[in-house]
Automatic annotation (TrEMBL):
Pfam families: COX3. GO terms for molecular function: cytochrome-c oxidase activity. The keyword Ribosomal protein does not apply. This is Cytochrome (Ubi)quinol oxidase subunit III. SUPFAM superfamilies: Cytochrome c oxidase subunit III-like. Keywords: Cell membrane, Membrane, Transmembrane, Transmembrane helix.
Length: 208
């Protein structure tokens, strides 16, 4: 049954509460369009990086800079966070608000762990390897692409944190459910983008 208000039907949520209202379905469609625009934007940044990655201006090269075990650890953490966001959506479909908030909280913690590793990585590059934003065209392209993704991760952490607060203030309803689902879509998107960054920037940088 489709409902247009925030209260559960007969005390229970529909199986897919994120799609239970027209507003919720419109949010999902609108967000898919937003992700399409984000894909084009990241595609442009990837193309720029590939064009400039060889222009080191006598500065450090990718092979000299990158420490793959550290980046692989960050990648593992982010991929696990994608799994916990899946568990969160499963809890939402079961109508279990507490389990939903728990899995979202774990996702946030893992996201913070990833962000902490990335900040440490940048610190090492700038302080110990003299690889700054303006060192070369390669460094500018690297920090723009990877830093832009990091900003997306930071925004996702803040967004999911606010949603957790809404869940405890307003409960799990057909109004809050689309927000949870859309935030999970966003999180999966930035995880997929990172897989491409890990492959194109780090792995190709070490072998190229």
């Amino acid at each position: 049954m489709t409902t247009s208000h925030a209260e559960p039907v007969n005390g229970q949520l529909p199986h897919e509460p994120e799609k239970a209202t027209l507003e919720g379905r419109n949010k999902l469609i609108g967000f898919w369009l937003f992700l399409g625009g984000e894909t084009v934007l990241f595609g442009t940044l990837f193309a720029t990086f590939l064009a400039l990655r060889g222009q080191t201006n006598e500065g450090p090269s990718a092979n000299e800079l990158f420490h793959l075990p550290l980046v692989a650890a960050a990648t593992f953490i982010l991929l696990v966070s994608s799994l916990t966001s899946v568990f969160a959506i499963q809890a939402m479909h079961r109508g279990n608000r507490n389990a939903l908030a728990l899995w979202l909280g774990i996702t946030v913690v893992l996201g913070l762990g990833f962000l902490g590793i990335e900040i440490y990585e940048f610190y090492e590059y700038v302080v110990h390897k003299e690889f700054g934003m303006t060192t070369s065209a390669f460094s500018s392209a690297f920090y723009t692409l990877v830093g832009f993704h990091g900003a997306h991760v930071a925004f996702g952490i803040l967004w999911i944190g606010l949603i957790i607060g809404q869940l405890f203030r307003k409960g799990l309803t057909v109004v809050t459910a689309p927000k949870v689902y859309v935030s999970a879509m966003y999180w999966h998107f930035i995880d997929v983008v990172w897989v491409f960054i890990f492959t194109v920037v780090y792995l190709l940088g070490k072998v190229g």
